[in-house]
């Protein structure tokens, strides 16, 4: 049975490079993964006052995350960190305290940037949050997609075979990571 993977895309922009890379990874995924983008842009900002009576969007998001076996976090870099949407999704899923939907499920990160360092800062800031949330995060291979504007065709597909092969190796490693670290039911 395929492992269900929630793909969280931290960029909300209509023509998001991060979403395009995430979609390419979904296409390259082995049959052992069932990957689905879980939308995060509709989530009201986390506010502890809502823990007692959470907005419907929070409840739906938490249910979707609870039904998965692992995560792929696709993040752009905003000011050397993750986007507000990604941070908000992490917070919404982690609360109320002691009821985190992230707990113990394996994850992997890919960061995307038009710049030269490929979202390194966002990638590592996200790892810090995932450690606290007890999300075993895949260490290798690391995935930083730099100069993403040179990597994608206008239709969102990958321009060159080297990048396709890198992404294929990466998503195959994610599949092995999830298989090894997913909770046994």
What's the short version?
α1 (17-28) packs across α6.
Write a structural description.
This protein has one domain: 3-Layer(aba) Sandwich (Rossmann fold). The protein has a five-stranded parallel sheet, sandwiched between helices. It contains six helices and five strands. α1 crosses α6 (161-181). It has helices spanning 17-28, 56-66, 84-94, 120-132, 148-151, 161-181, and strands spanning 3-9, 33-37, 70-76, 107-112, 144-145. The protein is α/β, with parallel strands linked by helices and 185 residues long. β4 (107-112), α4 and β5 form a beta-alpha-beta unit. 39% of the residues lie in helices and 15% in strands.
What key attributes describe this structure?
39% helix, 185 residues, 5 strands, Rossmann fold, 6 helices, 5-stranded parallel β-sheet, single chain, alpha/beta
Shape: globular
Low-pLDDT residue intervals, each spanning 5 or more residues: none
Report Rg. 16 Å
Strand content: 5-15%
How many angstroms does the end-to-end distance come to? 12 Å
- How many helical elements? 6
Question: Structural class given helices, strands, pairing?
Answer: alpha/beta
Strand order of the largest sheet: 2-1-3-4-5
How many discrete structural domains?
1
Strand and helix order? EHEHEHEHEHH
Helical content, roughly? Answer: 25-40%
Strand tally is 5
What's the architecture in CATH terms?
A: 3-Layer(aba) Sandwich
Reported by name, the CATH topology is Rossmann fold
| CATH hierarchy class name | Alpha Beta
**What is the CATH superfamily classification?**
Flavodoxin domain
| Average pLDDT over all residues | 96
